[in-house]
Amino acid sequence: MRKIIIDCDPGHDDMMAIMLAAASGNVNLLGITTVAGNQTGDKTFTNALKVVTLIGENIPVARGCDKPLVRELVTAPQFHGQTGLDGADLPSAVINPAAEHACDFIISTARQNGTITLVPTGPLTNIALALTKDPGIKNNIERIVLMGGGMHDSNVTPAAEFNIYVDPEAAKIVFNSGIPITMVGLDVTNRAIMTPGEIEDLNKPGGRVSGVVVPLLQFFAKANKDIFDLPGAPLHDALAVASVIAPEVIKTKHRRVDIEVSGELTRGMTLVDIYGVTGKTPNADVALELDNKLFISMMSSAVHTLDSRAAEGK
Ligand code: BDR
Ligand code: CA
Description:
alpha/beta; Inosine-uridine Nucleoside N-ribohydrolase, Chain A; 8-stranded mixed sheet; two-stranded antiparallel sheet; 12 helices; globular; binds beta-D-ribofuranose; binds calcium ion
């Protein structure tokens, strides 16, 4: 079973990513590390603690960087609200955070566990810092399956996806690290949509977890309808986790991806060398196709599993 760490900035879709991994019997979620992104570092960390409290699992949560490596933080309240998880009525956090900084948690967990898979679903600040602080952990990281970027698609500027845009210097370090990368970008995640009807169905027969998730996703679907005219909630980050659990949920092409760090209009762009014109060695498996039916069924099952576990724990 693959051992994973989710490095995230919850975030509606980050929350769904955590829940999918926690519910799955096919991955071992060793821990959650948080980073500033969708909201401030304080808020994303607190949100992760609340999510773990909601699902009632014993998963370590370590707080990481409050700002990108060299730039000022950009947040995304237009999608996630002022709390980062608007729409959700989450319980107060009752679990104790891990003592280590996220970066040290990643290093120590990688070293103690032989090989692990990192699943970053926010800006790549913590991952870049961990790789810089202890480059030897590259041998302990089997693969980085990240939500970020896009070959043809963008969301925060006409050129860039949010996670890469927020900390392009970190993204450059990660993409140049030599560690195998799967880039689960907007080309697929903007189509990983849960429709309003599917969201409502999560609450049948209903339970503690789905009762929180339904209004959460309704908020997120509305934001994405208002801003992008999407027909539902794009569960970007959860698709990265889904592809670790069931690789057939996406189809990829092995290509070179470079990160724009200095462009006037193109900060954070992921340049995918689709025709091999640079002659550079490919460094990423770029997701270009999606089985959304499979993905949505995985998400629904995960929520129902967590509802059942919550009911049993009562
Ligand atoms: C990514 O940006 C964030 O707002 C989401 O949580 C996701 O990780 C999508 O571009
Ligand atoms: Ca995210």
